[in-house]
TrEMBL record:
Molecular function terms, GO-annotated: carbohydrate binding
Compartments, record wording: Cell envelope
InterPro entries attached to this UniProt entry: Peripla_BP_I, SBP_2_dom, TAT_signal
Keyword Signal in record: yes
Residues in Periplasmic binding protein domain copies: 49-313
Domain of life: Bacteria
Family: Belongs to the bacterial solute-binding protein 2 family.
CDD domains attached to this UniProt entry: PBP1_ABC_sugar_binding-like (cd01536)
N-terminal signal peptide: 1-32
Species in which this protein is naturally found: Gluconacetobacter tumulisoli
Protein name listed in UniProt: Sugar ABC transporter substrate-binding protein
Length: 370
């Protein structure tokens, strides 16, 4: 469990180096005329491949980008050929970095991106489309924004159906609590799709457990240090009334565990989400009851692959059915019963994927609630 303290201490130092990496990836960019949308263009022979994401110090995003690097290597390129656009959770920086990339390379860009929050997805897509470049997104977009409204340039969007899996983890938590007592929920960034859906799943589970008291919910923004502070505040306010903790991500669970340990609490039932290697290890030891794996390595590689192969003309996105433009990624519930077997298959080594088999692990077209 010492890795949690080390993890928290290293985040600030790592972020400094990652910001330098992000700056390096964009250095020397000169302003070029932006190409208008709707103009016929030849397929790019060797497009620049970029991943725009929050923070590689986060194990989830590290797995995402590792998948992107695996895809780049499959092309016979070096890992360093993947351009890292690190936004540190800032939508403004996300959009600014992407625009700078497009200013330098124009239509010769294949971009994989998490827009950081839902409203930012539209300006990102519009900027890419105007430049005649190609983008595939994950997680965050508004319901009224669709790839097929942008021809081929907005290649695809992948998200995960989090309501059901989050409800499953909540039920496991409530059962471990004996069906009674107080529970708190630590959420992600409020405007993030996964934060919204994971809270919804948690609340759905509450309906079947009338003796579980929902004490509080607070956003910790997917951040370990902030989650540590939030949980410390919960303990000060509610004390022994807290009998279980529902976390919307593994990284926040690490902060929760450290806050509990500071109070001498070692056996509080906790569930989390993302299936990060450290969390799976904690599940094998019974320190976390369950997590949900979303296969970020595959997601990171396939999102970059979709943008790249659209840019090179390998396939034409507008000729694909809608279920190939907007689709769910895979989820796997990992519990103490199966964590060791799962760890051997997915954590100790990454399976080999065919990066041209774009939808092999997809779980169908995204469904929107009215």
């Amino acid at each position: 469990m010492s890795f949690i303290k080390n993890y928290i201490e290293q985040q600030t130092l790592n972020r400094r180096s990652l910001l330098l990496l992000s700056a390096y990836g964009l250095c020397g960019m000169t302003t070029a005329a932006t190409l208008g949308s709707g103009v016929a263009r030849a397929a790019a022979q060797n497009p620049k491949i970029a991943w725009s994401y929050r923070d590689r110090t986060n194990p989830y995003w590290n797995s995402i980008v590792s998948g992107g690097e695996a895809f780049v290597r499959s092309l016979g390129k070096s890992t360093s050929d993947l351009i890292n656009l690190i936004n540190e959770g800032s939508s403004e920086k996300s959009l600014s970095d992407i625009k700078s990339l497009l200013s330098r390379y124009g239509s010769e860009v294949a971009l994989a991106a998490d827009p950081n929050d839902m409203p930012n997805c539209r300006p990102v897509v519009e900027a890419v489309s105007r430049a005649g470049a190609y983008v595939s997104t994950i997680w965050n977009k508004t319901d009224d924004l669709h790839p097929w409204d942008f021809g081929d340039n907005y290649v695809s969007h992948m998200t995960w159906s989090d309501v059901g899996p989050s409800e499953q983890t909540a039920r496991l938590l409530f059962d471990a609590m004996g069906g009674k007592g107080g529970v708190v929920h630590l959420g992600g960034i409020a405007s993030n799709n996964p934060a919204i859906e994971r809270l919804e799943g948690f609340k759905n589970a509450l309906k079947a457990y009338p003796n579980i008291e929902f004490l509080a919910v607070q956003a910790a923004d997917w951040d370990t240090q902030k989650a540590n502070q939030v949980m410390s505040g919960f303990l000060t306010r509610y004390g022994d009334a807290i009998k279980g903790v529902h976390c919307a991500s593994d990284t926040m669970a690490y902060g929760v565990i450290e806050a509990l340990r500071a109070e001498g609490i070692e056996d509080m039932p906790i569930v989390s989400y993302d299936g990060n290697p450290q969390a799976v290890e904690l599940v094998t030891k019974g320190k976390i009851l369950a997590t949900v794996f979303t296969n970020p390595h595959w997601a990171g590689g396939i999102t970059a692959a979709l943008a790249y192969y659209a840019a090179t003309g390998f396939f034409k996105p507008s000729a694909e059915p809608k279920e190939h433009r907007e689709f769910y990624g895979p989820t796997t519930l990992v519990t103490t019963k199966d964590a060791q077997v799962f760890k051997t298959k997915y954590i100790d080594t990454n399976p080999t994927y065919d990066w041209k088999d774009f939808w092999s692990l997809g779980k169908g077209q995204i469904k929107y609630r009215s």
